[in-house]
Design brief:
This protein is an alpha+beta fold. The protein folds into three domains: 108 residues, Orthogonal Bundle (Butyryl-Coa Dehydrogenase, subunit A, domain 1), CATH 1.10.540.10; 109 residues, Butyryl-CoA Dehydrogenase, subunit A, domain 2, CATH 2.40.110; 151 residues, Butyryl-CoA Dehydrogenase, subunit A, domain 3 (Up-down Bundle). It has twelve helices and nine strands. It binds flavin-adenine dinucleotide (FAD).
């Protein structure tokens, strides 16, 4: 067993941390207040590869290992939740399916702009009536007409839709075929009939744009499908497995930031004649946060390691995401508690971190869905062990 990052991974962590400290964290409050991404930082991310983590090497991408992606997401989360979510969605949801299942022509068409630093990628799964239950609920339908798909329907809560040149869209393509009746289709955002509605007004992650989209007879070439038609549901589940490592790491970063703010404040603030860090009740919160963040980090990075070693990681990614997001919630809640009234003020970052982390137990599969994924696997494993024949 080896719990150490490799030398390259440590160097990468240092590069991303330094970048985030100077280019991302100082703007986090402004990004939240203005509800706008800081594009100067995103343009600069091009130089260190943060926007090409899931782009093919031959087209200028980084194609780094999953642990390095987790490192990047944790550092971004530690600096700014909004920026981190948009970059996570760009890499893990927008770029990864095109890298994985795109044809050479699709990759050559979309990657130059996707890694330019001027736009971000997006994946549209969720609909107004379907989030957790995509299989039963997705209504957006693409029908074949000659050499085109004609798409009708709507998608909800799509990160980066308004800043994306192309959106990967989960469409039902055969109503009779169950899980084999879906396809992921690339839709150029300039296509007539596609409407990207104004950004949602959210509780947190305000700088990360989230949009409703509607499709009214949107026509795209038949070869815009990723992989084979009918593969979309399986591709979606695989994309979400990966994405859960990224969101788990992002949540760790948010939790870590709240933890650091809490410890810093506890050492400065005095009550009853001594720094509050010397009161046991505060020490317990600090101890629990340190322990829980460490445990969550081990789970998230183990899932990344399993993926990098070509092993099954579905259950472990769900466990990592579940624990990291719920730990981020507790740690940021307690960081506010440690700050007292000041924690409730927008002058201190813990209030923003608390709002930002709240999404993490919902997006890319709610905590309840993670528990379903884990329990299904456990029950299957138990059956296999109990009846080896
Ligand atoms: C800021 C933000 C960004 C997002 N970005 C994207 C994006 O880029 N692309 C995208 O496609 N989507 C995106 N989403 C949508 C997100 O992935 C969904 O909101 C999420 O999957 C949950 O779906 P839902 O909101 O429809 O909730 P529902 O599925 O309606 O669930 C409601 C509640 O019921 C529970 N529930 C549902 N089924 C079960 C069950 N079987 N057992 C127990 N409990 C259950 C859920 O856990 C939840 O508590 C985003 C959402 C937000 C808020």
């Amino acid at each position: 067993m080896d719990f150490e990052l490799s030398q390259e991974q440590r160097m990468w962590q240092r590069i991303v941390r330094d970048f985030c400290e100077s280019e991302v964290k100082p703007y986090a409050a402004e990004v939240d207040e203005s509800a706008k991404l800081h594009w100067d930082a995103i343009r600069k991310m091009k130089d260190i590869g943060l926007i090409s983590l899931e782009a093919p090497e031959e087209l200028g991408g980084m194609e780094v290992d999953t642990i390095s992606i987790a490192i990047a997401m944790e550092e971004l989360g530690r600096a700014c939740g909004s920026t981190a979510l948009s970059i996570a969605a760009h890499n893990g949801l927008g770029c990864a399916p095109i890298k994985r299942w795109g044809t050479r022509a699709q990759k050559e068409r979309w990657f130059p702009s996707l890694i330019s630093g001027e736009v971000l990628g997006a994946l549209a799964l969720t609909e107004p009536g379907a989030g957790s239950d995509l299989l039963g609920g997705v209504q957006t339908f693409a029908r074949r007409e000659g050499d085109e798909w004609v798409i009708d329907g709507s998608k909800a809560w799509i990160t980066n839709a308004g800043v994306a040149p192309v959106i990967v869209v989960l469409c039902r393509t055969d109503r009779e075929a169950g899980a084999r009746g879906f396809s992921l289709i690339l839709v150029d955002t300039k296509t007539p009939g596609l409407t990207i509605h104004p950004p949602e007004k959210k509780m947190g992650l305000k700088g990360s744009p989230t949009h409703m989209i509607s499709f009214d007879g949107v026509r795209v070439p038949y070869d815009s499908v990723l992989g084979d038609p009918g593969e979309g549901f399986r591709q979606t589940m695989m994309t979400l497995d990966n994405g859960r490592i990224g969101i788990g790491a992002l949540a760790l970063g948010l939790g870590q930031a709240a933890f650091e703010e809490g410890v810093k404040y506890a050492k400065q603030r005095r009550a009853f004649g001594k720094p509050i860090a010397e009161h046991e009740a505060i020490q317990w919160m600090i101890a629990d946060a340190a322990m829980e963040l460490d445990a969550a980090r081990l789970l998230v990075y183990r899932a990344a390691w399993l993926k990098d070693h070509g092993k099954d990681f579905t259950k472990q990614a769900a466990m990592g995401k579940l624990l990291a997001t719920e730990v981020a919630e507790r740690v940021s809640r307690n960081a506010i508690q440690i700050h007292g009234s000041y924690g409730y003020s927008r002058e201190f970052p813990v209030e923003r971190i608390y709002r930002d982390q709240r999404l993490m137990t919902i997006g890319e599969g709610t905590s309840e869905v993670q528990r379903l994924v884990i329990s299904r696997r456990v029950l299957q494993e138990f059956d296999t062990v109990a009846s080896p024949a």
